[in-house]
Amino acid sequence: DAGVTQSPTHLIKTRGQQVTLRCSPKSGHDTVSWYQQALGQGPQFIFQYYEEEERQRGNFPDRFSGHQFPNYSSELNVNALLLGDSALYLCASSPLRAEFYTGVGSADTGELFFGEGSRLTVL
Amino acid sequence: AQSVTQLGSHVSVSEGALVLLRCNYSSSVPPYLFWYVQYPNQGLQLLLKYTSAATLVEGISGFEAEFKKSETSFHLTKPSAHMSDAAEYFCAVSDSRGSGTYKYIFGTGTRLKVLA
After folding, report:
1. Neighbours of A74 (CB within 10 A)
2. pLDDT mean across residues, chain B
3. Cβ contacts (< 8 Å) between A89 and chain B: which residues?
4. Which of A6, B10, B16, B22 is most buried when burial is the number of CB atoms within 10 A of its CB?
5. Which chain A residue has the Cα nearest residue B45?
């Protein structure tokens, strides 16, 4: 059973460029969340996607946008990159739908499953 | 608003000694609480979780944590540290109960160093 996979693992961009990061959720999961982890900090919530719509958003500017596809995979896009965007970007998946509608079983734990992350360096 | 405070950004223990990593939370509703471990250049791995069942939660690799509502704490312990426990540890709180949104608030992390 494949876990959460992210690509690319590392990338380098320059200020002002745009970047797209990709995530495939764990099998059976339909909700994807993105987190930004700056060096020496805890992960910060960017946004969450379910049924191809953004459901929640953290305190991030509109330069950060995303998308979820019918197969539940997701992309994170960042425009007009700044030096401060350098960070590890983590994707996490969870089985929202099962928990929301049934409230029973192992899905009802609030547990997120994280990928290895994409490390973005902005020069 | 929910928040998590991890006391001590760096903790050093000798191999075989007790590990204690502190986490205090703030939440207006009964929370879900988690401890994650992060090894260098890797993602987050779940150690254990509290979801309102037993207040003493056992996790992987010999770790456990106790939920104390009166102290709003969820400290992580391990009786005997191993060199392989050296990593960054994050406490997180979620108010996903009933909402199903699984938004986590993370602490700033505690880097555990194990001395030979």
Report:
1. 25
2. 89
3. none
4. A6
5. A114
